[in-house]
Design brief:
mainly alpha, 3 helices, 80% helix, 0% strand
């Protein structure tokens, strides 16, 4: 599995997990929690990083 795939899947998973919990907590308790917002932001950063990562095979022009 490629590094960019791992970043993409993990980023989406983190965004979904923290976003869903944050939404449930907001509806239930009517307040935001900073740790959930930080987790969601981390997921967005990982997802965006998955598009910016260049792997060694792509740099050298090798294809498998």
């Amino acid at each position: 599995m490629k590094v960019k795939d791992v970043l993409r899947y993990f980023g989406v998973s983190v965004m979904f997990l923290f976003g869903a919990i944050s939404l449930i907590k907001y509806v239930k308790e009517d307040e935001y929690f900073m740790n959930l917002l930080i987790g969601f932001t981390l997921g967005i950063i990982l997802f965006i990083a998955s598009f910016l990562v260049k792997e060694e095979d792509e740099k050298n022009g090798k294809s498998s």
